[in-house]
Structure formats: C-alpha cells, structure tokens
C-alpha cells in the first residue's frame, strides 16, 4: 500500500516549498494563478485530499465511520443505516451518512469527503462502477467493508446476502403458485447482487424445465422511477408472474399494473426482495425475500474493526442467509381470492 500524498510530496513534485503548496491548495491570492493551477493539478493527479480537521486529535482517530449507500430514499437502505448506527454507537463510534444515488461520481465525491473528515473507516454499498472510489480509499489507507455487493477485484471485506438463494426462492414460489410466464424485473448486471438474484431465478426455471425467454427479462433503474416504461413491453408477452429485484421496484410495478387495469395477485403475481414490510409498517402485502439486518450490521462492524486493528489480514466474505416471506401479492394454488 503506497503512502498517501502530502504537502511535502506535492512540493517535491512541482519544485516548490510546502508552504507555497499549502497556500495554493487554499486558493490564496498570494500565489500566482498559473502557479496555483499547476500545484492544484499535481495535487489532483496524486490523489491528495485535504484534511479538514488536521491536528485536532493527537490520537489520530476521530471515532467516526462513514456510511455510503446507493439510495437513502429506499426504505431498505434507511433500515440498514439505522442498524449500523446502533451497532457502531455501542462500539463508541459516530457515523456520517452519504447518499451516492447509484452514481460513480457522487460515490467518489462522498469517499473524498469522508477521507477529508479523517473517518476511521467506511462502510460502502458500492454502485455499479466503484473502482475509482475504492482506489482512493486504498491510497489513503482507509479501512473499508462492502455491504451487499461485490467489487470486481475482490480486494475488500464484504458482507452479502445469499442473493442467489433469494432469487431461486422467489421464482420457485411463483412456479408453485401456478405461474409459467415469469418475468425478471431487475437492474444492471454490473451490480453483483442483481446478477446473483437473476441467476437464482434462472436456476428455478431450469429446475422446472422451463426454457428462459429473453423477452421476459428487463432492467430498471436501481433507484426506481422508470419501472412502467420497462414493464410495459413485458406485459405484451403474456406475463403471469414477476420477480422484482427489490421491494421498491415491486411496489412501483404493482402501482403501474393497477393503473393499467391489472390486479395483483389476481392477474399477475408479484415478488419483491428486501422484506421492507418486516421493519417498516408498509400496508402493501408484498411477498418478499428477507434477511437478518441486525446480524448483517454486526458482521459489517466486526469486519471493519478487525481491519482497523489488522490492516494486512486476509479478505473475509460473510454471507447472510435469505428466506421467503409469503404475503398477499402471490396466490397459492387453490386460493381463488384476489
């Protein structure tokens, strides 16, 4: 792991004093504009992050942890943040919350800000392309644990749900309810949990000797808002069941169906993923895949604290088991009610 850039190393690169570099990075009028631009460009290329609280703590620790989530408007992420805050508070840490909106640039900005605040560690639910953010964390030696999604390189500790099993359970349940034209309403396959859930869905179809139909697979935005647009073509394919990537997407799908004269589960049966109704009093009775959020939070904090004290320890991958919770958006065989 390389040492993070400092005022001194930037000064050596541009051939000036550390004091001049410091003034330039603070946009001081005492430094000529062309000199300032050269210094700022070098600092950016070297990945320099200004320390907002430099010298404030002799211990070198701030007892703060940053939590970066993809969409804090999603009730699942809100519940995860609450569980993490509770466990971290027990360990003597405060949290700083960032929302990436599933956007790599916003994720990078959040990580940069977290580093500038000298957080002791970071919990990240990565977007589809988190490489730049992870490189910056590594460059500055900030411990990081991933929540819910793998990175491509596999260099980070991570706590995952058993997403493959969840997708398999959801699709298998719809098959048991008599559905045969089951659509997958997912999100970009660059997100590992989306790949795993879809693969579980495909495995259930294969086990039932149903050939997957590519026309029944669609991708919406992870943050929702476009489900109607991607769902409309699926309805023309004679869909009788839908496996949704998340409860958020499933709720949006249910609203769209009802607005278009189709009833859940009378006309189309529907499963979600996250079981938000278990920890938020959501009135809509959605069959969904569940996991233990408290255990997930404790595993995340455990791995982060281990990494703080043992920075060179091997990478750990922890998987949280998933279960299906059956509610009113599916109709078991023999039940004629809507």
From TrEMBL:
Protein's name according to its UniProt entry: LacI family DNA-binding transcriptional regulator
SMART domains given in the database record: HTH_LACI
Organism name: Candidatus Pullichristensenella stercorigallinarum
Transcription regulation keyword on record: yes
CDD domains attached to this UniProt entry: HTH_LacI, PBP1_LacI_sugar_binding-like
InterPro entries registered for this protein in UniProt: HTH_LacI, LacI/GalR-like_sensor, Lambda_DNA-bd_dom_sf, Peripla_BP_I
Domain of life of the source: Bacteria
HTH lacI-type domain residues: 5-59
Entry-linked Pfam families: LacI, Peripla_BP_3
Record key words, sorted: DNA-binding, Transcription, Transcription regulation
One Gene Ontology MF term: DNA-binding transcription factor activity
């Amino acid at each position: 792991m390389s040492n993070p850039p400092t005022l001194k190393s930037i000064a050596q690169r541009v051939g000036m004093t550390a004091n001049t570099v410091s003034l330039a990075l603070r946009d001081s009028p005492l430094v000529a504009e062309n000199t300032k631009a050269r210094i700022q460009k070098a600092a950016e290329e070297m990945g320099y992050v200004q320390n907002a609280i430099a010298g404030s703590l002799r211990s070198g620790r701030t007892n703060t942890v940053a939590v970066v989530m993809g969409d804090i408007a999603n009730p699942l992420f809100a519940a995860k943040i609450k569980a993490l805050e509770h466990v971290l508070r027990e360990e003597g840490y405060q949290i700083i919350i960032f929302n990436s909106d599933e956007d790599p640039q916003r994720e990078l900005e959040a990580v940069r800000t977290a580093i500038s605040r000298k957080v002791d560690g970071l919990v990240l639910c990565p977007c589809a392309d988190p490489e730049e953010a992870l490189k910056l964390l590594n460059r500055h030696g900030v411990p990081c644990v991933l929540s819910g999604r793998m990175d491509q390189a596999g260099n980070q500790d991570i706590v995952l749900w058993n997403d493959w099993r969840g997708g398999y359970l959801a699709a298998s349940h719809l098959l048991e309810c008599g559905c045969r034209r089951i659509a997958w309403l997912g999100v970009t396959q660059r997100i590992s949990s989306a790949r795993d859930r879809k693969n579980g869905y495909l495995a259930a179809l294969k086990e039932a000797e149903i050939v997957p139909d590519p026309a029944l697979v669609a991708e919406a935005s992870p943050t929702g808002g476009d489900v109607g647009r991607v769902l409309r073509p699926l309805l023309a394919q004679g869909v009788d069941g839908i496996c949704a990537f998340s409860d958020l997407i499933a709720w949006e799908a249910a609203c769209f169906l009802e607005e278009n004269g189709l009833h859940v589960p009378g006309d189309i049966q529907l499963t979600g993923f996250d079981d938000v109704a278990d920890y938020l009093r959501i009135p809509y009775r959605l069959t969904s895949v569940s996991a233990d959020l408290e255990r997930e939070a404790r595993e995340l904090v455990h791995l982060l604290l281990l990494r703080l004290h043992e920075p060179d320890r091997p990478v750990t991958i922890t998987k949280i088991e998933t279960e299906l919770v059956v509610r009113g958006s599916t109709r078991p065989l023999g039940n004629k009610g809507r």
